Each structure stands twice: as structure tokens, then as C-alpha cells.
Amino acid sequence: MSDESPAGYAGLWLPPERDPRPNRSTPDGELATYRDYLRQYRLTLELKCQDLTPEQLATASVPPSNLSLLGLVRHMAAVEDGWFVRVLQGQWDRPRMYRSESDHDLDFNGAAGTEECRDDAFATWHRVITNAETWLGTRSDDSLGERVRLPDGGESASVRDILVHLIEEYARHCGHADLLRECIDGRTGL
Q1: Which fold has domain 53-185?
Q2: Most confident of the ranges 6-10, 105-109, 121-125, 185-189
Q3: Which of 57, 184, 69, 76 lies closest to 132, judged by CA?
Q4: What is the spatial distance between Cα 71 and Cα 54, in angstroms, rounded to a whole number?
Q5: pLDDT (tens digit, 9 = 90+) per residue, 109-137?
């Protein structure tokens, strides 16, 4: 990627015509809107990771935090798997990703700066996204009010609430990704 910014777009990595995210036209329907926001944030996180080495991706560049871009990819894979598979699809016996009895933060603590770890993290994240999109393809606006049991066993939430939470989770972590990337190589924007 070039460090040159198009006129009027100082700080952006890509000119708008090369941005892979879809045009922000308003989709029809509530579910389509949620899916569009998820797609936008997923692509934004992916773009924040673009053109970095495995070591750079695994760098916790904002001390004392253990957050890294690779850790965020692993974390979002675990988050989407937890909500879309365990909660929304009711597969409670499925083990949580990147978690052990002794370390509940393996998504970040296990984010090693190796090609193998990077490739596995992105493949896992993409697989989880494909599963989530497949499941979302079976839903309609009318199904968003359905309630599902939450992990604590006593509470429930609507599908709508869970989708809004996922959008919020991506939005927060894309903000973290902004800072992490800027501290790694000075890149800002998107």
C-alpha cells in the first residue's frame, strides 16, 4: 500500500474507490442492517491487520495492555463462536475457543508472532464468520424477537439484543485496533 493519501482524505490508507467495504447505502430491514454493520466492522478489523508481519500482529503495542491485533482477531473469533454457536444455536457443550482452566485470556496471551498462529487465527475467524452468516441467512426480521437462554442459565435475551451486542463489541475493538496499529507503524485512518 502506498503511504500517499488522496486529496481530501489525509490519513486514510485507501482512497474511497479502493475501499473493499460496501457502499454505506441503507439496507432494507432490521436484520439486513445488523448484518451490514457486522460486515463493515469485520472488514475494518481485517484492514487494520493488513500488511503486517506475524510479529507485528502479535505485538502488544499499547502497554501495559496485553491487547494485540492478532489477539483481537482471536478474541472476535471466540466472541462470534460463543454467541452464534453456543448461545444462538444452543450448542452449550462446545468448548470455548482460546480458553483454558488456567487462562481465560488465551485469545490474547496465546497470540504468538508466528505464521502458523497468524494463519490459524485468521482461518478460524473466517470459518466462524461463515458459520454466523449461514445462520443469519436462516433468520428474518420477524425472528429477531425470539429469546434464547444466556450462559448463566437463568437469564434470556432476544436475538436482536445479541446482534446489537456483537456490533458494539466489534465497534469497541475496532477502536482498540486503531490505537494498536498506529503504535505499530504510525498508520491511521479507515
Answers
A1: Four Helix Bundle (Hemerythrin (Met), subunit A) (1.20.120)
A2: 121-125
A3: 76
A4: 11
A5: 999 999 999 999 999 999 999 999 999 99
